[in-house]
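Quick one, probably user error.
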């Protein structure tokens, strides 16, 4: 079973980047999921191929940062909400469809489709501010446990305007 996530990074990252799970670059979660790897095959290739037309089409969409909010238990996780934007929601829905086609399991079903609230979590002093303009210019497929190591994350595929 592979634990993967699609995100839209809002700061520069290179493909192949490995980072500690506690030090994510700023990002918008698109969909987090588990998917089974067929014997002898790398399911991430299939995931990336199916997602390619959707990620490519969404690049360049303009987003605006909305108000701050608190997510998680008792609202203890500070986030910057992303104002509703059709291209972002369409991308989210298409990626959920990709996961479904691969018989994957979305790990946060209550926060998916009609429950999707795009946001960027604050990381210490790193954060976005209300009114900031953001371009959807870096969409990535990230492995949540590369080589079985749950302490790090790895950018497997990066779609970007660069």
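Nope, works fine. Designed sequence:
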């Amino acid at each position: 079973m592979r634990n993967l996530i699609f995100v839209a990074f809002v700061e520069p990252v290179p493909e192949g980047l490995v980072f500690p799970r506690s030090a994510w670059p700023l990002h918008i979660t698109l969909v987090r999921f588990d998917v089974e790897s067929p014997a002898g095959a790398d399911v991430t290739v299939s995931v990336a191929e199916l997602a390619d037309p959707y990620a490519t089409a969404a690049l360049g969409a303009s987003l605006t940062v909305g108000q701050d909010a608190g997510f998680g238990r008792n609202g203890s996780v500070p986030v910057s909400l992303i104002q509703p934007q059709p291209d972002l929601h369409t991308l989210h829905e298409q990626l959920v469809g990709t996961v479904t086609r691969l018989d994957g399991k979305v790990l946060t079903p209550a926060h998916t489709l009609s429950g999707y609230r795009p946001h960027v979590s604050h990381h210490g002093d790193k954060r976005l501010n209300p009114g900031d303009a953001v371009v959807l210019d870096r969409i990535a497929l990230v492995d949540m446990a590369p080589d079985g190591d749950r302490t790090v994350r790895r950018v497997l595929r990066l779609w970007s305007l660069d």
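Strands lie at 2-9, 18-20, 27-35, 62-71, 77-82, 105-106, 119-121, 133-135, 138-143, 152-160.
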